[in-house]
Design brief:
Layout: E1 9-13, H1 16-19, E2 46-47, H2 65-79, E3 83-87, H3 90-93, H4 104-119, E4 123-129, H5 135-141, H6 148-164, E5 170-174, H7 185-190, E6 198-199, H8 207-231, E7 236-238, E8 241-242, E9 245-248, H9 253-276, H10 282-290, H11 300-306, E10 312-315, E11 319-322, H12 326-332, H13 356-370, E12 374-378, H14 396-415, E13 419-422, E14 445-447, E15 459-461, H15 463-473
Parallel strand pairs: 1-3, 1-13, 3-4, 4-5, 5-7, 8-10, 9-11, 10-12, 12-13
Antiparallel strand pairs: 2-6, 14-15
Helix pairs in contact: 2-4, 6-8, 8-11, 13-14
Bound molecules: 6-O-phosphono-beta-D-galactopyranose.
Length: 480
């Protein structure tokens, strides 16, 4: 039976806005997450136009990779990482997103990070934009709704490519680009929140604005992929989708059809555009029903065709069910990405349904559809960790979760999927994207940082650290 390839890219994933901190250091400008307060499962975080006194904005310090990168990369190397997924803070390079010239101090920081990774033979995997649009672009253009932002992004990406062409090979254009198909995507992904102060659960639902903004992201992504293919042929350019697997709640054909529609809009639409190079025909009916008209400029379709991805990456945390039966909806309740709960699955403390087999199913579907190398660039269990008196964290629940998912990845490889690598989310504790908490931890490494903003940022290896080290050492064979 086939198993993981010899050069399988084992590693871990992070994002600048949830990890770096140093939000206004060395010329960095404010980005959307710098305007996000802390929150929790029960009390949603808020976005504020103005900075409110006595309010905690957790991304601003986060877990301070900016001042701990040497120590952290050493820990990653100790686990045997082959790849390190990270993102670049756009506002470190272009503080407002609109400057003509980049900020040298920002560029230097990533030079140091890449050099440090190279020291240990770790390959960077860089997300160009991971939920951290410059806030000035929100104020000026209503985020990605403004077509002008395409040029800002292309300028930013071009600077990164030229500067790091000998240090970075793997690039992803937008993190979870399909989150823009959902109302919550308006904030972190699209930045179409001009003038908005309030809870992220109360964002107005404006599909016309969101899908137009998404079109601009598609064009921007394709433009930079085209540029990379022309000028830097060694680069591998990927998408990044939030893959929220959907099942029909019952075998009632109307549930099956509803599920198909949800799969298309949520999971396939964006990657169809990015992998095939054109809008899929099914989206027209959806646009018609929602009264959405996409304004395209001459040449856009051509650019989409010319800027197709080389590999497909996605995050995978959960699955959900779809049904047309209102009683079933009422009975089981919803979860984060919509749909209803699956009676065969358990959920995490945050209500995310745990479904390892869904990962195998999804990998097969993705591979069948695109025949492109695939990488799982986020996966993991957000959980509350307890620091024992002797300073340890016994996180067997995390090991269980990851083991089951790796087993299913191995099954998918045996099914014939060309799987390149695996970077579990938040390999070191970072701020939660959805809630702004520190209490929701994913890491193999604990960071002493708490929801009230206190903590000395000390790094502590959890039990899972040693387990993952073994997994990597044995190329995924020793999972127990
Ligand atoms: C994905 C994001 C990440 C990350 C992860 C976990 O949606 O790409 O940035 O945070 O989810 O989510 P959370 O932090 O909300 O638990």
């Amino acid at each position: 039976m086939k198993s993981f390839r010899k050069d399988f890219l084992w590693g871990g994933a992070t994002a600048a806005n949830q990890y770096e901190g140093a939000w206004n250091v060395d010329g960095k400008g404010a980005s959307v997450p710098d305007h996000c307060t802390n929150g929790s499962h029960l009390h949603p975080k808020r976005i504020t136009v103005d900075f409110e006194p006595d309010t905690l904005y957790p991304s601003r310090e986060a877990t301070d990779f900016y001042h701990h990168y040497e120590e952290d990369i050493k820990l990653a190397a100790e686990m045997g990482f082959k790849v390190f997924r990270m993102s670049i803070n756009w506002t470190r390079i272009f503080p407002t997103g609109m400057e003509e010239q980049p900020n040298e101090a920002g560029l230097l920081f990533y030079d140091k990070v890449f050099d440090e990774l190279r020291k240990y033979g770790i390959e960077p995997l860089v997300t160009i934009s991971h939920y951290e649009l410059p806030y000035a672009l929100v104020e000026k253009f209503n985020g990605w709704y403004g077509r002008e932002v395409i040029d800002c992004f292309v300028r930013y990406a071009s600077v990164l490519f030229e500067r790091y062409k000998d240090k970075v090979k793997y690039w992803l254009t937008f993190n979870e680009i399909n989150s823009g198909t959902m109302p919550m995507g308006a904030a972190l992904s699209l930045g179409t929140i001009k003038g908005f102060t309030g809870s992220i659960k109360e964002l107005p639902d404006e599909p016309q604005i969101r899908f137009q903004a998404l079109h601009h992201q598609f064009v921007a992504s394709a433009k930079v992929i085209k540029l990379a293919h022309e000028k830097y042929p060694a680069f591998m350019m990927g998408n990044m989708s939030l893959f929220a697997t959907k099942y029909p709640y019952t075998c009632n054909p109307s549930d099956v059809l509803k599920c198909q529609r949800a799969m298309r809009i949520m999971n396939w639409f964006c990657s169809d555009v990015q992998a095939r190079g054109y809008y899929p025909s099914y989206i027209e009916r959806f646009f018609e029903e929602k009264g959405i008209t996409i304004r395209k400029e001459p040449g856009d379709d051509e650019i989409l065709r010319q800027g197709k991805i080389d590999f497909y990456t996605f995050s995978y945390y959960m699955s959900a069910c779809e049904t047309t039966d209102p009683d079933a909806v009422a009975k089981v309740g919803g979860n984060l990405v919509g749909g209803v709960a699956n009676p065969y699955l358990k959920a995490s403390d945050w209500g995310w349904q745990i479904d390892p087999q869904g990962l195998r199913w999804s990998l097969n579907e993705i591979w069948d559809r695109y025949q492109l190398p695939v990488m799982v660039v986020e996966n993991g269990l957000g959980a509350k960790d307890v620091l024992t008196e002797d300073g340890k964290i016994h996180d067997s629940y995390r090991v269980d979760y990851l083991r089951q998912h790796i087993e299913q990845m191995r099954e998918a490889v045996a099914d014939g999927v060309d799987l390149m690598g695996y970077t579990p989310w938040g390999w070191i504790d970072v701020v939660s994207a959805s809630t702004g908490e520190m209490a929701k931890r994913y890491g193999f490494v604990y960071v002493a940082k708490y929801d009230d903003g206190t903590g000395d940022l000390k790094r502590i290896r959890k039990d899972s650290f040693y387990w993952y080290q073994k997994v990597i050492e044995t190329n995924g064979e020793a999972l127990k």
